[in-house]
Write a structure and sequence with these properties.
Blueprint (H helix, E strand, L loop, with lengths): L2 H35 L1 H10 L2 H18 L6 H17 L4 H19 L6 H11 L4 H15 L5 H19 L13 H8 L1
């Protein structure tokens, strides 16, 4: 075997090794992003239509949120926001539209207190998806119902569902497993069942 053939074989082995290393890295990145973003991973892949571009989008989101320095709520803020949620939830029976509007506002205030910027809705949802992927779909669903309501296309049951969606995100943002209800307040989903 002459030296040229030897160098060609060495080059092929190095190239093959690089391709294998890239494939392993790519699969590991995909697995990591799927774990981190859950159903949001699938949604973005479907929306973008290309796995590499979708993964680049999700990676960019994660880097952006990392720079935001998101922090947990203090115990005092957690109690204060919990009390505010109970008030919003109690209002639902008499004023569903106002309660949904206030729930959206309260979720925004809670996000801001945690360190999320108050940009446009799509940016807020993207930011939330990094650390709260299991409930970002709730945020989008609640927002969509609120927009339908503003066009006169949502009924009280739709608004009740929006409250349930907002509550799921709110509880995740609070990072508490304590119930936000007591004898005096009944969550909208229970109120609906009690009236039926």
């Amino acid at each position: 075997m002459n030296s040229t053939t030897l160098w060609v074989l060495i080059g092929i082995v190095i190239l093959a090794g690089a391709v294998v290393a890239w494939l392993i890295w790519s699969r590991q990145r995909t697995a990591r992003l799927r774990r981190q973003f859950g159903p949001e991973y699938t949604r973005v892949v479907q929306e973008v239509g290309d796995i590499r571009r979708a993964e680049s989008t999700l990676t960019a989101r994660a880097k952006r949120v990392e720079r935001l320095h998101i922090k947990p709520l203090t115990p005092g803020d957690r109690r204060r926001f919990g009390d505010m949620w109970r008030n919003v939830q109690t209002r639902f029976v008499d004023d569903p539209q106002g309660a949904v509007t206030d729930a959206d506002r309260l979720v925004g205030e809670t996000m801001h207190a945690r360190g999320y910027p108050l940009g446009d809705f799509d940016q807020r949802a993207d930011d939330i998806s990094v650390d709260h992927p299991s409930v970002v779909m709730n945020y989008r669903a609640a927002r969509e119902i609120a927009q339908r309501h503003s066009r006169g296309e949502a009924n009280t049951e739709d608004l009740r569902q929006a409250m349930v969606h907002y509550r799921a995100l709110f509880m995740d943002l609070l990072e508490t497993h304590e119930p936000l209800t007591d004898e005096k307040t009944t969550p909208p989903e229970h109120e609906h069942a009690r009236r039926a």
